[in-house]
Specification:
about 400 residues, alpha/beta, seven-stranded mixed β-sheet, two-stranded antiparallel ribbon, 9 strands, about 35% helix, disordered N terminus
């Protein structure tokens, strides 16, 4: 990790450095190590984010099974990475890791946590310290507060979020790419903790909002030299990548992640789009075919075009859900049939509590893990040569 001794950052004529009077410098120097130990050393972890379908609590189980059932893995690809909890462990185990997701916000998060690049820890803490000193009632209204204030966040907090986001954009020229992505990711992770939601932005809780001041901590950013980060349609990326193992955890029901996390997409892109409906969503983009009736064909196209020795697929039994929106678009027999066309497949299961939107209940929820050792001869015979991506 590249860290310099820089302790103040200027935008225009305003110093963001910590200010002390001449008589209190010595006292401040004594307190600084304590401040660094109590605040600087408590970064926010990757796994702390609320996210539908997160594998954070299942990652050890998944990676242990992969260890037991696969051999000689050098390149590991996670092509529907989501929270990237699986990728996070893979980065500590394999020489080369490919991380992909179609959402802009997830791509920024991967770059913030994992991308290899120069960043100055003290400089970023200095900036965060300034943000934590803001007085929201003195800030001007902005795009974020006008749209999301009093709904997803209390109004003053929304003003602070919008002000901070614009400030990050205004000083982008003074930041490295790594620093820019760390600050955006830090903003996402800190507002996730105080949002007036059940963990997504498809709706907000329609009750009086408890004021929760935004006090930010940096994320636990790392420099990883063994990572490649993409924002592509997984079915298109499958035609380009070569990996020893490809881990697949696509969305399976009708709930689009670009709609669940539209607020983060708007925050990251900062194009200030026109918003629609009660949940204040922009015009849809980057929608997944895996949330539609084309899911089964999309999955078949995906595995058919992978150049890999192992295919590992996460799947859950929400296909028995009482909610139509939670019902899986790809059925379990279809998954098994397609994977068996690629090679010998083993199936493992693990019971765990499923993070839902708050309306759907599952009895005996289980996560399934398929591990397929690819047989190229079987695979080439199984799939018709004229099959194309729809």
């Amino acid at each position: 990790m590249n860290v310099t001794g820089q302790t103040s950052h200027r935008v225009g004529n305003e110093s963001r450095g910590l200010r002390t009077g001449s008589n209190s410098v010595s006292f401040g120097q004594q307190l600084l190590p304590l401040f660094q130990n109590t605040v600087y050393q408590r970064p926010i972890s990757l796994e702390s984010r609320r996210y539908i379908g997160s594998k954070a609590k299942l990652t050890d189980w998944i990676m242990d099974l992969i260890d037991e059932e696969t051999r000689d893995i050098i390149t590991f690809a996670d092509i529907f990475a989501g929270t990237a909890s699986v990728s996070n462990q893979a980065l500590n185990k394999y020489k080369h890791v490919i991380i992909n997701d179609l959402l802009y916000s997830n791509n920024v998060i991967y770059k913030g946590f994992f991308a290899n690049g120069h960043w100055d820890r003290l400089k970023l803490h200095d900036i965060i310290t300034h943000y934590n000193s803001l007085e929201p009632d003195l800030l001007d209204d902005n795009y974020f507060s006008e749209n999301f204030g009093g709904k997803f966040f209390d109004y003053d907090t929304a003003k602070a979020i919008g002000h901070i986001r614009q400030d990050i954009e205004d000083m982008k020229i003074e930041l490295t790419d790594k620093e820019y992505n760390i600050l955006l990711t830090t903003l996402i992770y800190n507002i996730d903790r105080i949002a007036n939601t059940v963990g997504h932005y498809d709706a907000y809780i329609k009750k009086p909002i408890k004021a929760q001041p935004l006090q930010m901590r940096l994320i636990d950013a790392q420099n990883c030299e063994n990572v490649e980060i993409y924002r592509q349609d997984a079915n298109l990326l499958a035609r380009e990548l070569t990996a020893d193992l490809v881990y697949i955890d696509p969305p399976y029901n009708s709930r689009q992640y670009n709609r669940f996390y539209h607020l983060y997409e708007t925050l990251v892109k900062w194009d200030k789009p026109q918003l629609y409906g009660v949940a204040l969503k922009p015009t849809a983009e980057n929608s997944s075919k895996y949330c539609t009736v084309k899911a089964r064909d999309s999955f078949e196209d995906l595995v058919r075009n992978l150049n890999t020795r192992y295919i590992v697929v996460s799947y859950n039994n929400t296909y028995n859900s009482k909610s139509n929106s939670s019902e899986n678009k790809i059925k379990l027999p279809e998954i098994e049939k397609i994977l068996n066309c690629c090679g010998d497949t083993k199936v493992f299961d693990c019971s765990h509590r499923f993070f839902t939107t708050g309306k759907t209940e599952f009895d005996d929820h289980k996560e399934l893990l398929f591990i397929t050792q690819v047989d190229e001869k079987r695979k080439s015979k199984s799939f018709p040569p004229l099959l194309r991506w729809r």
